[in-house]
Structure to design on (137 residues):
């Protein structure tokens, strides 16, 4: 279950948002993980019979059950550790999600602390994305 502002976040709360930045806290050992997740993804389907163009469909991602990309965090969960999943920021674009993930990771010094699972920060943002980021401020 995801929590936003201490209230359970459900599919009906998505509205116009495209994704979110999150904090997963392992309640068993106190370690944390900061990441981002999109609500939707685009999948390509084969063309209709007699047509040449491929079709694109937007579907939900696995955001409801997602637990991050940290192998160690997922191993701890598999071993029975209890977690809390908090949404830190709802965003309206991929670039905003990338920016705010980086911002929260830097503010918390996640890469340098032993109480965070984060082991890498890999981000590319260009000035074209700035307008999207400013919408979510």
């Amino acid at each position: 279950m995801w929590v936003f502002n201490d209230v359970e976040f459900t599919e009906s709360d998505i509205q116009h948002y495209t994704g979110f930045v999150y904090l997963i806290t392992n309640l068993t050992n106190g370690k944390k993980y900061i990441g981002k997740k999109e609500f939707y993804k685009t999948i390509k389907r084969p063309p209709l019979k007699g047509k040449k163009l491929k079709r694109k469909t937007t579907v939900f991602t696995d955001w409801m059950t997602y637990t991050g990309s940290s192998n160690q965090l997922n191993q701890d969960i598999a071993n029975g550790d209890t977690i809390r999943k908090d949404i830190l920021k709802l965003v309206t674009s991929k670039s905003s999600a990338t920016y705010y993930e980086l911002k929260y990771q830097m503010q918390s010094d996640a890469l340098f602390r032993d109480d965070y699972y984060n082991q890498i920060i890999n981000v590319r943002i260009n000035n074209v994305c700035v307008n999207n980021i400013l919408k979510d401020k």
Q: What stands out?
A: Residues 94-108 form the longest helix (15 residues). The mean pLDDT is 92. The two ends are 25 Å apart (CA to CA).
